[in-house]
Amino acid sequence: MLVIGNWKMNPPTLGEAKKLFLAVRKGLRHRPKYLELVVAPPSPYLSEIERLSPSQRIALAAQATSEQNPGPHTGEISVSMLKSVGVSYVIVGHSEMRARGLSDEIISLTLKVILKNKLTPVLCVGERARDTNGDYFSLVETQLVRALQGLARKDLKNLIIAYEPVWAIGTGKNATAEDVSEMNLFIEKVLADQFGRPVARNVRLIYGGSVNSRNVDGLLEQSTTAGFLVGGASLKPAEFLSIIKSTNQHAKKHLAKN
Ligand code: PGA
Question: How many angstroms separate the alpha carbon of residue 92 from the centre of ligand 1?
Answer without folding.
Answer: 14
